[in-house]
Amino acid sequence: MNDIAKIFTDPPSPIGSEKPPLVQRHSSVRRTMEIVLDTWSFLILREAYFGVRRFDKFQQRLGIPRQTLSSRLSVLVANEIVSLGKRPNEPGQQYFLTARGKELFSTMLSLMEFGDKWLAGDNEPPLQLIHKTCGCECHPVTVCSECLEPFTAKEVAPRDGPGAGYAPVENRLTSRRSSDSALLERVRPCSVARTLGIIGDRWSFLILREGWHGVRRFEEMRENLGIATNILADRLTRLVQADVFRKVPYNSGDRFEYRFTQMGLDLYKPMLVMMAWGDRWLADGKPPMRLRHKTCGHDFSAIVVCSECRKPLAAKDTDYLLRYPFDL
Description:
Layout: E1 23-25, H1 28-36, H2 39-49, H3 55-62, H4 66-78, E2 82-85, E3 94-97, H5 99-103, H6 105-118, E4 127-131, E5 136-138, E6 140-144, E7 156-160, E8 166-168, H7 181-184, H8 191-199, H9 202-212, H10 218-225, H11 229-241, E9 245-250, E10 255-260, H12 262-266, H13 268-282, E11 289-293, E12 298-299, E13 302-306, E14 318-322
Antiparallel strand pairs: 1-8, 2-3, 4-5, 4-14, 6-13, 7-11, 9-10, 11-12
């Protein structure tokens, strides 16, 4: 098994035994994805980072039904991503990002880094970051927390952490496709939304996880995931069209394997930023996995820094230039 695989590994079925119930490795990545992947929750968080705090303003910006908005905000409050409160001399209640919510900003930035690099086409990225700490226009860079250098998937060596183990697969998956890019980019052009358009449903994430696990063939993915053939075929087609996987013929050319492209390998970096957030906030002090950066030799976590001063980017220290008209 390769090193990349260990982040997402599930145990094999015992040879010659009755097939056991599906289990999955404890994963801070998966726990974070459960929050980020919901389309409406993502859109609400995105507007919160732009300073929106009031219920009516979220509704105005997003055109979201009141019941849906209320439901998603309740989930974000329950997960301690936002809190409900009041400001002195300002009428009504408002939704404020908590410490958890503010630190989730790094996940958004790493997804933005990927989208700016791979999904902007010939256009400039829709958002120009300004790091108020150093005063420079910058872009986000995902780096090793110890040496502050960028890393590749092949330079990371994972091992079990104190929270390692397995749990039964929760039966929460549906066959519904993720929302289209028009909804994900509602109101604003957005590199983060474009990235989520690729990985923005749980089946696609689990298929990517199988890829990190070294599984490359259709039947093995289908058996491991318990996924319907038509759903798997649909998601693989989309991932190939998105240039995350490439189809490589085998068995005299009449069957195919699915291998990561360089673009697909780059998705590993935002996955590790999600892992770092989940380790901090969702693992009860027992991260399921430890990571070592082979290049510098240290245990590390993935952080997002300013391209100019190499200091971590925080929401409160970041401003924006919009490269698109915005009237609301």
